[in-house]
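Onboarding guide, step 5: your first structure request.
Type a short instruction followed by the sequence, for example:

Predict the 3D structure of this protein.
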Amino acid sequence: MSDLLLRARLLRDSRRYPEAIAALHQHLALDPDSFLAHYELAVTRLIEGESYRKALEDVDRAVALSPENPSAHAIRSAILLSLDRDSDALAAADKAIGMDPEFAFAWVCRGKALLAKRQLPESEAAARRALELDADFSDASNLLSTVLRLQKRFGEAEVEIDRHLERDPENAWTFATAGWTALNRSQREKAENLFREALRLDPGMEHARLGLREAYKARSPFYRLFLKWVFFLNRHSEKNRWLIIIGIIVAFRFGRELLSMIHPLAAVPLVVAYLLLTFGSWLASGLGHFLLLKDSLARLSLNRQEKLDGLAVGGLFFGGLLLLVLGLTVLPAGIAFVGGAMIGASIPGSLIFDNPSVKGRIVFGLTTLTILGCGALICLHDFRRAVHEPLMNDATGKMLTVALVALAATTWIGGIPALRRGKVR
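The system replies with structure tokens like these:
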């Protein structure tokens, strides 16, 4: 191996990725057909996480230079998985396994691709096969623990975590995996301690930071209910999640009609439960961020976008609730419309600051402003109208309709993946 390749590896191990990539390009300037340089370039870009598309181009060149190399196909699988191309990632992993059936990393790649497709038993089998080949392989152990957790086999997951920690007590990923398992079991304090330990070992681990943030937010009973709902959905594929949501909507409509036939008020508890489920799931995360802002320690687990999200959602919701109550009691009725508009706007507002999609931020930002504008116009009409003039007329009625349509539309278009996911790098 040349000095440049050795230097690139050392730089990568030190997380100095741009310098490692520069060293690899220097090597390629001298030897453009170097399989190892293209392969190392793909691995470095994959770990760096700045451009998976370039990583795929690099590994494709490596595969073209050495098409029978299982390592290149396995890395290609890992890159494709980062690009959300789950089926292609599975095919690449299977190709690597076909070349070398005893290549543990290829089995882990297969298991991760199957996990992304929510084929949990098959993913578990791949993880166990990787551990048969290499019992100390931390990626395989963490994958197995994750799959067991998603199948609600918490006891087996903890046994696997304990087994691996005995072999590698300084593995940050294993502590983070244990933290998520504890959080799934509603063991919030234990989860906080495990995530803190993971961050002590690796302060930059996003997986552990997110876990600690969720553990802090789970101090709220309301948020714990939301987490249970999220964990339930995570056990299903995207297709099944949509079927579950559509099933709930159909069941709600059928149940409401049935209960209304029995008594006009019998459907009220069902309607309230449905509204809490529908709107609570949109607001839970932002309100959780807002509550963390009040805690000087927990606040440190939030990044800038999450803090802005908490301020926007919490400010709109609680500020709107206050104005709504005041408008219905001691202040002019127009104030109540502003309060109601702020509460409604908090729903699309929850999809602005913490949303990685630029299109999504624009769409939901405009929706938020539309609802707030409608509330403000109705309030303005209230202040300007004559004593005998009614608050609601054709113009204000249309404003109210626009606001309600914008709110209802949010609950539908908010599920469009293109408006919730960032641009693939």
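Each response can be followed by summary notes, for example: The chain is about 75% helix and 0% strand.
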